[in-house]
Amino acid sequence: MARDTSLKKGELTDTYYYILLSLMEPKHGYLIMKAVERISKNTFSIGPASLYTSIKKLLEAELIELVEESAQKKIYIITEKGIQFLKNDIEKKREMVEAAEKIFNDRGML
Asked: pLDDT by residue (tens digit) across 16-75?
């Protein structure tokens, strides 16, 4: 699924998901990349090009906002709309896991 359409449909890619989670507190790009690695326990990483493309899309969708800008860095934070997107995505993921667990349990596989 293309990232452009996922946000319009209210869906988050893994990249968007981790960026939004990392921005519960204000951060600049490098700290976002490091936070994503920490949050994902080093199972997911975002390179600079992907990060800044995603930031642009998240800004356009008003899921994050620029809170401070200097010559060296820009600092972003999640918006209320972004928090709601994240909550909805977490609930959707929870339902997906529950459905999968039920299928596995019904077959004695878990």
From this structure: 999 999 999 999 999 999 999 999 999 999 999 999 999 999 999 999 999 999 999 999
Give dist(CA 81, CA 22) in Å, integer.
15
Alpha-carbon span 107 to 27, nearest angstrom: 45
Q: Please, is 9 exposed, middle or buried when counting C-beta atoms within 10 Å of its C-beta (0-12, 13-18, 19+)?
A: exposed
Annotated domain spans of the chain? 3-106
In this structure, the strands spanning 27-28 and 74-78 are: antiparallel
Instruction: Please state, in angstroms and as integers, the Cα–Cα distance from residue 4 to each residue in 24, 38, 58, 69, following that order.
Output: 23, 26, 10, 25
List the structure tokens of 93: 């993921």
Q: How far is CA 7 from CA 16, 104, 106, in A?
A: 9, 31, 34
pTM higher than 0.70 for the full model? yes
Identify the CATH class of 3-106: mainly alpha
